[in-house]
């Protein structure tokens, strides 16, 4: 009987005690990492011959900015690009038409360079980028044509520094004889530029 009363007392005491509130679990929202930009790659490179020019086309995975410049000694066209991947581009590739050969160079600082060597003085007719269309990726187009050495030199930039000109040393003026010899047997008078003088007989 006492055991039953003790059990009932324990149950009543447990019912009187307040229940501890449950703690809600919170998790901090973690920032998503920025999307990794894929490196632009060269998919294909080809040369085409036209009656008045040679065309070089690069097919890319995405559009990129570029700058084109022409240089001499040796004659070449340089295309500066951002960091671009070109599998096998480091090998020198044979050209045709105006293009003698071309190669791809990776540069420090996340830049790339396309060097197009020509067989003589050349000029850039056009350079532009075609957006993706007709099932093709973006394409970079470079048109090169031959020119004369005179036209190439006229179009080349002038050097900023020039050698100073040297003045030629002045030669001392030669003085003419003021008393000419007179071989006439008779006395004579002659007028010279610097006054009159009498010629006497040569003794």
Protein described:
The chain is mainly beta. It has helices at residues 2-16, 149-155; strands spanning 40-50, 53-60, 67-71, 76-82, 84-85, 93-94, 99-107, 111-118, 122-130, 139-146, 188-192, 195-199. It has a five-stranded mixed beta sheet, with no helix packed on it. A hairpin with a 3-residue loop joins strand 7 (99-107) and strand 8. It is elongated, with a radius of gyration of 47 Å. Residues 158-168 have low confidence and may be disordered.
In short:
The chain is 11% helix and 39% strand. The chain is mostly beta strands and 203 residues long.
Query: What structural class do helix, strand and pairing data support?
Result: mainly beta
Low-confidence parts lasting 5 or more residues at pLDDT below 50?
158-168
Tally of helical runs: 2
- Report on the biggest sheet: 5 strands, mixed
> What proportion of the residues form beta strands (DSSP E)?
35-45%
Q: What is the strand tally?
A: 12
Bulk shape: elongated
Instruction: Strand order, main sheet: write it out.
Output: 5-1-2-10-9
Mean residue pLDDT: 76
Helix content range: 10-25%
Radius of gyration: 47 Å
**Element-level helix/strand string:** HEEEEEEEEEEHEE
Span from first to last CA? 185 Å
């Amino acid at each position: 009987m006492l055991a039953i009363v003790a059990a009932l007392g324990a149950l009543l005491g447990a019912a009187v005690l307040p229940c501890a509130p449950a703690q809600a679990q919170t998790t901090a929202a973690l920032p998503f990492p920025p999307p990794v930009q894929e490196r632009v790659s060269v998919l294909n490179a080809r040369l085409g011959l036209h009656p008045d020019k040679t065309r070089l086309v690069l097919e890319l995975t995405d559009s990129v900015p570029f700058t084109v410049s022409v240089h001499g000694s040796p004659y070449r066209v340089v295309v500066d690009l951002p960091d671009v991947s070109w599998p096998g581009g480091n090998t020198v590739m044979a050209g045709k038409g105006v293009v003698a050969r071309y190669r791809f160079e990776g540069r420090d600082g996340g830049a790339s360079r396309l060097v197009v060597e020509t067989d003589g003085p050349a000029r850039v007719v056009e350079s532009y980028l075609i957006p993706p269309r007709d099932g093709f990726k973006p394409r970079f187009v470079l048109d090169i044509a031959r020119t004369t050495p005179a036209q190439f030199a006229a179009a080349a930039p002038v050097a900023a520094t020039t050698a100073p000109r040297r003045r030629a040393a002045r030669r001392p003026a030669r003085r003419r004889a003021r008393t000419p010899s007179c071989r006439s047997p008779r006395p004579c008078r002659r007028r010279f530029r610097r006054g009159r003088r009498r010629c006497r007989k040569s003794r």
